[in-house]
Amino acid sequence: MFVSKPGSKKQERLRALVEDPRRRRFWAARSRRRQAVVVLTLVTLAGAAAFAAAILAEPPASLVWLGAFVLMIAGSAVTATQINIAARWVAGYEGLDEFQRAEADHAARLGHHVTMVLLGLLIGIVCGFGGWLTSQEASTHAVLAVLAPLVILTTLCHAAFPACYLAWTRPDEVLDDEDEQV
């Protein structure tokens, strides 16, 4: 990752945040992590749809749709942060063993592959729209209503995919005895 190494105080805060026994117990079940990934996907897709609706709507309604977009993206950011903590996908966190680090590296590589596929799809759609626009008269609002949400989804997928992949594929965590008694 391209982040500077955090100092010892920040590392202690990260460890306290990620390894909190209550939080670890909450995210121990794979089913709960998978539910969070599904919620993140739905909220992000709804946000992209709200952005497209904001582009296509007339001025009074477009502000409502824009507000819905901001709320959905804020909800997406909060949910993604919780998934990052659940999957221990926190930038600068050093509390991973070798196996977890290898899993994280694999998830990052897979995330880049998924992003490349989405970018290829986006470029294909842009080229298709370019050919279509030269042969017909089309509204720029319609083009933006398709392309802008795809750019948003590609960006958010690139940011969230590795943590979502880890949250989805990791088995249920086995909690230590001391964690269960807290």
Helix and strand layout, with pairings?
Layout: H1 8-18, H2 21-26, H3 30-56, H4 59-86, H5 98-135, H6 140-169, H7 177-181
What does this 3D model show about the protein?
This protein starts with 7 loop residues before the first helix and ends with a helix. It is built from seven helices and no strands. The chain has one domain (9-181). α3 (30-56) runs antiparallel to α4 (59-86), α4 runs parallel beside α6 (140-169) and α5 (98-135) packs antiparallel against α6 (140-169). 80% of the residues lie in helices and 0% in strands. The longest helix has 38 residues, at 98-135. It has 182 residues and is mainly α.
Describe the structure concisely for a colleague.
This protein is an all-alpha fold and 182 residues long. It is 80% helix and 0% strand. The chain has one domain (9-181).
Features:
7 helices; mainly alpha; 182 residues
Strand content: under 5%
Counting DSSP H or I runs of 4 or more residues, the number of helices is 7
Structural class: mainly alpha
* Tertiary shape: elongated
